Amino acid sequence: MPPAGAAFCLASAAAFGAMGVVAKLAYEEGASVGTLLAVRFALAAALFWLLLICAGRLGELRALARRDVGIAVALGAVGYGAQAGAALTALDRLDASLFALLLYTFPVVVTVAAIALGRERASGRTAFALVLASAGLVLVLAGASSGSLDPRGTALALGAAVIYSAYILSSEGVATRVGPLVLSTILCTGAATTLTLAGLAGGDLDPRRVSTTGYLWLAGLATVSTVCAITLFFAGLRRVGPTAASILSTLEPVVTVALAFAVFGESLGPTQLAGTALVLTAVLAVRARRSDPVAPR
């Protein structure tokens, strides 16, 4: 495995893993869920457009079939927007470490759904992974203290994992026809539009409440945990291939748990640590078998 490619994938996983902690720091500085979502994706979309222009890839965008552009816009505006909305609303109600573990059940959900849809064949490895993930999830939830296990937040985090899984399966076709930079630009633009309008309609978009420090955290969320994370992943993907890149990305929830401990003092009990090990083992099992199209978190 090329060392540079592995380093890019691990750096991407670390950047994605920091998202939960950075978002909670922004919440502490006055950012509402609506403000965080709108600012994150508006800034990320602007940065992706800048990258697209600087890379001289606008011609690639103009050459796309209208159908593919429409699909990509819909995936960003509906699928990606819904997943991000559910995930970051859940994060506002849960510890970052617990949130990360609940959300990271999505690779197993994707594999099970692909089998149910007839896109993959069932196997002993898949069944084993499903049992491990289910047992691990039970242990993670059972070991949570009453103060950190918010029922609505838990439901939203698991719902975000399901939405993200559906989004991945729906994006398989267009992801093979549209380049990653162009696709990421369209997705973030669609999500920014939907989430900004939703924030305005719901009265949850109030940038004036955010402190200067809060805006720094929001900028970090957009640049580091969105644009840089995605760019680094695709740089690694080209060098190590999809299977290795997918497995290396399993570092993501580990980074979240470590940062949550360092920044907020969050800690997992023995039961939750055992559950975490089972969930990550299940993810490694299914990711060694299939390579999911990657989309922004």
Low-confidence regions: none
Distance between the termini: 25 Å
Overall pLDDT level:
86
Helix-residue proportion: over 70%
What is the strand content? under 5%
If helices are DSSP runs of H or I spanning 4 or more residues, what is the number of helices?
Answer: 15
List keywords for this structure.
single chain; 297 residues; mainly alpha; 15 helices
Write the layout of secondary structure elements.
Layout: H1 3-17, H2 19-28, H3 33-54, H4 58-62, H5 66-91, H6 96-103, H7 106-116, H8 124-142, H9 151-170, H10 172-177, H11 180-202, H12 212-240, H13 242-248, H14 251-264, H15 270-287
Give a verbal description of the structure.
By secondary structure, the chain is mostly helical. It is 78% helix and 0% strand. It has helices spanning 3-17, 19-28, 33-54, 58-62, 66-91, 96-103, 106-116, 124-142, 151-170, 172-177, 180-202, 212-240, 242-248, 251-264, 270-287. The protein is globular, with a radius of gyration of 18 Å.
Could you give a short description of this structure?
Helices cover 78% and strands 0% of the residues. The chain is mostly helical.
